[in-house]
Amino acid sequence: MEKRILLYLLICWSLASNLEKSMAAKTRHYNFEVGYIYWSPDCEERMMIGINGRFPGPTIRAKAGDTIVVKLKNSLPTEGVVIHWHGIKQLGTPWADGTASISQCAINPDETFVYRFQVDKAGTYFYHGHYGMQRAAGLYGSLIVDAPDGEEPFRYDAEHSLLLSDWWHESVQAQTLGLSSIPFRWVGEPQTILINGRGQYNCSLAHFTGETSLCKITNSQCAPVVLRVLPNKTYRLRIASTTSLSSLNLAIGNHKMTVVEADGNYVKPVIVDDIDIYSGESYSVLITTDQNTSSNYWLSIGIRGRLPKTQPALAIINYHPNSLSKLPSSKPPVTPQWNEYSHSKAFTYKIVAMDGTPMPPAKSNRQIALLNTQNKIDGYIKWSINNISLAVPPTPYLGSMKYGLKNVFSAEKPPENFSEDYDVMRPPINPNSKKGSGVYKLEFNSTIDFILQNTNTLSENVSEIHPWHLHGHNFWVLGYGDGKFKKSDVAEFNLKNPPLKNTVVLFPYGWTAIRFVTNNPGVWPFHCHIEPHLHMGMGIVLAEGVEFVSKIPNEALACGITGQKLRN
Amino acid sequence: MEKRILLYLLICWSLASNLEKSMAAKTRHYNFEVGYIYWSPDCEERMMIGINGRFPGPTIRAKAGDTIVVKLKNSLPTEGVVIHWHGIKQLGTPWADGTASISQCAINPDETFVYRFQVDKAGTYFYHGHYGMQRAAGLYGSLIVDAPDGEEPFRYDAEHSLLLSDWWHESVQAQTLGLSSIPFRWVGEPQTILINGRGQYNCSLAHFTGETSLCKITNSQCAPVVLRVLPNKTYRLRIASTTSLSSLNLAIGNHKMTVVEADGNYVKPVIVDDIDIYSGESYSVLITTDQNTSSNYWLSIGIRGRLPKTQPALAIINYHPNSLSKLPSSKPPVTPQWNEYSHSKAFTYKIVAMDGTPMPPAKSNRQIALLNTQNKIDGYIKWSINNISLAVPPTPYLGSMKYGLKNVFSAEKPPENFSEDYDVMRPPINPNSKKGSGVYKLEFNSTIDFILQNTNTLSENVSEIHPWHLHGHNFWVLGYGDGKFKKSDVAEFNLKNPPLKNTVVLFPYGWTAIRFVTNNPGVWPFHCHIEPHLHMGMGIVLAEGVEFVSKIPNEALACGITGQKLRN
User: Fold this and answer.
1) How many domains does chain A have?
2) Does A213 share its domain with A138?
3) A215 at the B interface (CB within 8 A)?
4) Residue A328, CB half-sphere, CA atoms under 13 Å: how many?
5) pLDDT digits (tens, 9 = 90+) for A436-463
């Protein structure tokens, strides 16, 4: 009991401390109406999910300590909807995390749900749908939290934001159906990479073949992105990726970049020619506009990790006083070959924490290994973790755990390890897996290590990239390695300056180790951020300190068994 | 209070009488799993909503007095679903009527709802989605109720069923969005008319140009429908239309038809060359296979009421022992010109009740006129009734009325009439309308007349067909007329042998009068059965005897304000 009292005190202190901050903080109100719209994100018109009639959704901008209130009205005709605030911890408000079946019931058509949460930490974030594959339908936008005045540990004169995504011409309904069909139907590579929701299908090629004019684009919905800069200034570029599938690389002609932030955490400044960014990640880089001012420059975004059939996306760095439409004199930078993994690893390994970043506990209380495999269940292709493919129940975990309801999800404890003789370099010998909805119950305020272990897929000589995203937390990235994780690898963990992240890449045939402290009462998914992979079961559900969760708003509990049992 | 006690007794007697019947009756169990499927209903593959992996849904077949139990699992990824059992009165089970926002909450993804209801009256029925435009996505099937042995008032040797529908290649999501866009985007005429879910796009033309072979169809999903018959027998054809838009005409080469049933009610047998059938209607016709047995014969289905851009649908009447694929020696019958309304009216006016059909009360207690207009609201095109375009609330009426919840729907009493000087022959002078959710509250066990009045649409010289469908009831069709209804028309009402129907056509520029008794406690929509018209607001909501509704199952109340207030 003593421990429990201590925990209560801790939470009270944390809330009080937030309250203190919030004396100066603002509450920022937004009205979001989610509905289908016609839009031409790459100059080809399709149906998308928009917010307030536009795509992408409005940018939310706040200061650390502010409270965000989003009144979300669902105007989709027959679909539910939720929005996840990616990278926001939701300390004290786990029901506002915006994950259907986990933190809340999907909001029914014509109904309104109010998301209210504090943004306690400066950084580059975004928000997106977290139900079915609605993110891939266009349900996303930027969420940027400024540091308190004078508290940013680097200097810059101005900033630009780049929210990156990928886009298919096939409807999300058809994409989704294809994933759960026999035979499996894969939508293929994206038609277009979008920057701030804008791309040019069948048109960016012109840039590369040395044509001297941009495509004729009269539709502002797909106009090329132009970043206006003044000479001899320092710019912060906030780059976030909400791609459904694609891993990306970004490079700027003639300009080096200094990486200073990753997923809302400051990192030790590192100068690079290009950056890799995986779905779910965000970075801030600084660039100095010290190049020949008579020219504009290209910013290129290419695809990593999959044989690209998609043209790189381009934006223009427009030096004042050049014309916006003046084509750069040099060709767009060519991003690395898709399968040059050594390049990717070199970049990823370079990202370490800025001095002064909180250090991880020296030891973990529990180590959980997560084997990432591609499997089959009744002939359907699935992804599994320790041979369980996540199938979330219709009643959200948070409410059912808080109120101790039975039979909502599997009571079976999910496995914490896998067979020692599993050959990660070969397709699974027995590809059969099973669906599951069990929860990893974690002791509150304990230190957990996850070892993500990649494997060969169902096809010979294929292992895919998986960017894993943890809700409700930042974690320390303790290390990466090739092949199978060995116990002795623990000795090599970076406990000196491991970067804090909320999303981390798992390289093909490799492993990634993370550590975090279970200090945020709630139920939190940890999953591959590739939308079709999650939809095919690639994730797990964690619960910690659910007994400390305060009263969940009724509106988050309206469905399923919580809906039946918990009213008034 | 005396009246109330009498009503209770009436209901108890009715239930007891049903119970007696049900001693001999069966309970028939069905499991329906609703989900997206790939299907090729007209030989072009698209996504559809299927049941148990197939399209159309399974045929439900029962005997009058049986109880049907359908366990419906929603396996759509993000959409709710309901199913309406079209033509079934749902006496004592108004929550099983399957209308989202009216009788129940939509069933959430991964959840199961059990429909349990009695089919008390023999007839040709069907079922279909009643949420958004899911019917048009393929969510429908046949529901056939046989008369008790020996109680059918006509003789036949065997029967065939024809469930008719129309089909578009554009997704229902896109069709729906187009209806609520500025500018309005109309999907256009259907690509294909389907018979039992099968049609041949870009192929039926071959039949008409005198080609000597059918298209090569190897896919059973779109194989032409063949009705096998033996010579010199009498066949009952059960014909039902669940089209989204199209009014149809059906004719059979060399064979006359005797109409014997309409919407589950026996009619005075009438011999015709072709029948008109509107969305929501069903007919049974008898044919005698007394023609030259060396040939097969065509059955043709053409479009009425709209300039058709869709090939007629064809089926083959296959006389034994001819080959199934033997082409008829004569050309398919040509259905009447689309705008030959005199032909349609002549057919419709001929349908009267069989002798012995219950007669309507001689007078009504209340007459409500319903002006059908096309309007604009904030620039969006809508349909309105007495200048109100129906916009149903997220909380279903049935539960909120039963439990007296406030602020669920508009408390405003909807108008019972319209301006006497409204010119039905011209576009509206003021096209502006407003949305509404008010309810027509009808005294229990009273006699109500509705006068449906058609008008000119927003375009000069256009008035459209509207087949109006009433839930929970059969009604007597007292009369039809051209132009504006006059008080003196009441004197011409057919009180001698008015047909009982659940769906009735409103002809362009005309009026239709119906009468019914409010003897079924519940909340019932009365609406145009054209899917886009209903979606654009063309309907009203009636309530009667809601105080006599017994306990509504919790599962029907899980959403909205009932969800918040009514649990345990």
Assistant:
1) 3
2) no
3) no
4) 25
5) 999 999 999 999 999 999 999 999 999 9
pLDDT band for position A326 (cuts 50, 70, 90): confident
Which 8-state DSSP code applies to residue B214? -
B450 touches chain A (CB under 8 A): no
B359 in a domain, yes or no? no
Cβ separation A394–B134 shorter than 8 A: no
Partners of B562 on chain A (C-beta within 8 Å) are: none
The amino acid that residue A292 corresponds to is: N
Q: How far is CA A385 from the centre of its chain?
A: 19
Is B152 contained in some domain? no
Q: How far apart are CA A474 and CA A265, in angstroms?
A: 9
Same domain, A111 and A198: no
Contact status, residue A392 vs residue A541, Cβ threshold 8 Å: yes
Q: Specify whether A491 is located in the same domain as A404.
A: yes
For the CA atoms of chain B, what is the radius of gyration?
A: 23
CA distance B328 to chain A (A): 39
Domain stop point among B350, B380, B406: B350
Domain of A127, in residue numbers:
2-146
Same-domain check for residues B465 and B539: yes
pLDDT tens digit sequence for A149-191: 989 999 999 999 999 999 999 999 999 999 999 999 999 999 9
Regions of chain B short of the pLDDT cut 70: 1-23, 204-215, 566-568
Same domain for B302 and B445, yes or no, is no
**Residues in chain B closer than 8 A to A566 (CB atoms):** 567
Residue A105: list chain B partners with CB under 8 A: 108
| Both tokens assigned to B192 | 């294909």
Same domain? B172 vs B23: no
Taking an 8 Å cut-off on Cβ atoms, the answer to whether B36 and A177 are in contact is yes
Do B60 and B187 belong together in one domain?
no
Handedness of CA A535, A536, A538, A539 (dihedral sign): positive
Q: What is the DSSP string of A50-116?
A: EETTBSSPPPEEEETT-EEEEEEEE--SSB-B-EEEET---TT-GGGS--BTTTBPPBPTT-EEEEE
Give me the residue from B38, B134, B394 closest to A109, CB to CB: B394
Query: Where a domain ends, among B320, B350, B380?
Result: B350
What's the CA angle centered on A83, arms A82 and A89, to 5 degrees? 125
The pLDDT value recorded for residue A208 is: 42
- Tell me, what CATH number does A40's domain have? 2.60.40.420
Q: Quick check: B79 contacting A, CB < 8 Å?
A: yes
What residues of A are in contact with residue B110 (Cβ under 8 Å)? Answer: 393-394
CB pairs under 8 A between A and B: 110
Note whether ipTM > 0.85 here: yes
Residue owning tokens 């070969």: A426
Side chain identity, residue B565: K
SS3 A384: strand
The beta-strand segments (E) located in A131-273 are: 140-146, 158-167, 192-195, 225-229, 234-241, 247-252, 257-262, 265-272
Q: Cβ of A38 and B171 within 8 Å?
A: no
Contact between B222 and B198 (Cβ < 8 Å) = yes
| Residue pointed to by tokens 């096309």 | B374
Give how far Cα B284 sits from Cα of A374, B122, B154, B241, B258, Å: 54, 12, 11, 12, 8
Ramachandran quadrant class, B132 (left: phi over 0; alpha: psi -120 to 50; beta: rest): left
Residue A85 has pLDDT above 80, yes or no: yes
Question: Is the Cβ–Cβ distance between A288 and A231 less than 8 Å?
Answer: no
pLDDT for position B208: 42
**B166 within 8 A of B142, measured Cβ to Cβ:** no
- Nearest Cα residue in chain B from A38: B177
Q: Are residues A384 and A448 in the same domain?
A: yes
Note the pLDDT of residue A23: 57
User: Nearest to residue A452, comparing CAs of A436, A464, A442, A443?
Assistant: A464
- Does A123 touch chain B if contact means CB atoms closer than 8 Å? no
- CB within 8 Å: B181 and A38: yes
C-alpha distance from B212 to closest chain A C-alpha (Å): 37
